[in-house]
Amino acid sequence: MRAEPPAWAPGPAQAAALLEEAADLLVLHRDFAAAVERCEAGCDSLGPGPGPGPGPGHESFAEVKCSLCVVGIQALAEMNRWREVLSWVLQYYHVPEHLPPKVLELCILLYSKVREPQVMLEVGSSWLGSPANQRLPEFGSLLELYLAQVLLPLGRFGAAEELVRGCSALDSERRLQLLGTIGDSRSRWARREEETRPGAEERQDPATETLLGVLSQKLLTMLTLLRRALRSMSNHFYLLPYKKMLLATFLLYLVVVRLDPASPTSLPFIYKLVQLFRQAWAAVLSPIHRPPIRD
After folding, report:
1. CA distances from 13 to 17, 22, 257 (A)
2. Helices 58-78 and 101-113: crossing angle, nearest 10°?
3. How far apart are CA 5 and CA 35, in angstroms?
4. CB neighbours of 69 closer than 8 A, spacing ≥ 6?
5. What are the phi and psi torsion angles at 100 (to 5°)?
6. Are 189 and 157 in contact (CB under 8 A)?
7. Residue 167's pLDDT is what?
8. What is the pLDDT of residues 12-41, one digit of tens each?
9. Residue 237: how many CB atoms within 10 A of its CB?
10. Is it the case that residue 219 has pLDDT exceeding 80?
11. For residue 169, is pLDDT > 60?
């Protein structure tokens, strides 16, 4: 069993030692659970810290804490515990606006990779909306990352345009470029929706109607020939069962045109042909009268 880490004096020195140990556990020993434990111990040892603003010890404090969270995020991801990442880092930074740029970037990339970008919607919006963060040199790159990995994949084009137009940290040229990118993404999204719309089956109707028309014409031709034959045989036709004869003709027609009853597309054909058959049957019999029965 691994020995417990020594009890260091609280402060950045203890946190830095725990950070080094956590990095070794992550990279060399691949003991991810132990690495997370060291990161948690390091963050706890830092306490509330020297405050949010710059001051003595603030830079080293913030850097060590950020590095501990980066190692912890990687270790959690290695254990497939990525769902815990955001809540895990927020327990040390409390609000999204206080997340370091590197931690926010890593979270956006992680949740985008696992196809859960919606997790970062509110966090990213809060961070980018902070006036203090808009003065950071990393703000522009994080804004573009948030657009590309969160808003645009989710189809939030209105929110993306509002964010870009309201961002004072962007110059006019870069703002126009980003708005153009949003417009292109909106167009691609609309095309994909059009291609996958449920009405795709309806777009097959013209071809269906064309084929049905050809089949109907063939059926009418066959029934016309049959009608002529019936007229010439009217004196003897009453000896045959009408419906059985025409039904056999209709079934023979289905065999000739080779409709596949197992195919879903054949069902509308069969239904419409049955209706057409009934109409043709009425038309065939209407002028034909059975001869009077002789005494």
Report:
1. 6, 14, 86
2. 10
3. 12
4. 39, 43, 89, 92, 100, 103
5. -65, 150
6. yes
7. 87
8. 889 999 999 999 999 999 999 999 999 999
9. 16
10. no
11. yes
Written as one string, the DSSP assignment of the chain is -PPPPP-PPTTHHHHHHHHHHHHHHHHTS--HHHHHHHHHHHHHHHTT-S-SS--TTHHHHHHHHHHHHHHHHHHHHHTT-GGGHHHHHHHHH-SGGGS-HHHHHHHHHHHHHTT-GGGGHHHHHHHHT-HHHHTSTTHHHHHHHHIIIIITTTT-HHHHHHHHHT-TTS-HHHHHHHHHHHHHHHHHHHHHHHHT-GGGTGGGHHHHHHHHHHHHHHHHHHHHHHHHHHHHTHHHHTTS-HHHHHHHHHHHHHHHHT--TTSTTHHHHHHHHHHHHHHHHHHHHTT--PPPPP-
pLDDT at 8 exceeding the cut of 50: no
User: Token pair of 1, please?
Assistant: 């069993």
In terms of Cβ atoms closer than 10 Å to its own Cβ (0-12, 13-18, 19+), residue 19 is buried
